[in-house]
Amino acid sequence: MDLSQIVFYLFAGVAVASSVLMVTRKNPVYAALYLVLTLFSIAGLFVLLDAHFLAALQVVVYAGAILVLFLFVIMLLNLGHAFEPDIRGRFWWVFAAGLGLVLLAELVAVMRGAPERPEADIVGPLLEARGAVAAVAEPLFQSYVVALEITGILLLVAMVGAVVIAKRKA
Amino acid sequence: MLIESLLLSAILFAVGVAGVLLRRNAIVMFMCIELMLNAVNLFLVAVSRYAGIEGQVFVIFVMTVAAAEAAVGLAIIISIFRHYESVDVRNFRLLRW
Predict the structure, then answer these.
(1) What is the rounded CA–CA span in Å between residue A97 and residue A100?
(2) ipTM score of the complex?
(3) Would the CB atoms of A42 and B67 count as touching at under 8 Å?
(4) Grouped pLDDT means (10 residues each) for chain A, 170 residues
(5) Residue A141 at interface with chain B, using a CB cutoff of 8 Å
(6) Were A130 and a residue from A120, A135, B15, B41 both cysteine, which residue would form a disulfide, CB within 3.0 to 4.6 Å?
(7) What residues make up the domain containing A41?
(8) Which CATH class is domain B2-84?
(9) Is B49 within 8 Å of A147 when comparing Cβ atoms?
């Protein structure tokens, strides 16, 4: 077992543990902070899986922007202070755990089709040759440029929509 | 590391689904949805290592859509909170019979 595998299991364990804690903490501020921990360990896994640019994006976009937005809304609505417990009762625990396990079994059954020892690593040599950013940016700006522009319009629409919806009525 | 990554993404997705079912706080439900999106991102990155760089390109699109979804969703939650003084989904009964 080499070092990268040990680091992989470390990050995987942290991700699973903190995601479970996120679901079970009553205080929404703690839930948000455990979600940050999960997202950071997923960023670490991205580095191990040869996606260095996406790891940086994960930290900047998710941990830096989206989670700050979540925490900002929680504190704006004063929910972390006098929160009411919001976890459902025993029946829902059994139902959620059962459904989660069924879904997990389904996904594992599907993933058993994945090859045990896959063929040669494609992305590794590409990253060596082109660099971490150019390897992702070239297909993004050549083959997928239309989708990229539409995504930009989507962001603009979402921004305008968020401002209009959240604005206090005069 | 391929099998382990796929298994981890399945576990994270299942935890997110269980969280959406278990919680009544609308903001925490949103955070569970973000967790599910991240599980899918992890899946795409793990597969892209052997199937080509397009998986990583797709993850960028997923992140963008997640950011847009979070902004609009939280705006809706703020506007509902102004009306009901709560983010508990039991109180959102305008469209419920």
Answers:
(1) 5
(2) 0.91
(3) no
(4) 88 94 89 93 92 92 89 84 73 88 87 70 78 86 92 94 82
(5) no
(6) A135
(7) 1-83
(8) mainly alpha
(9) no
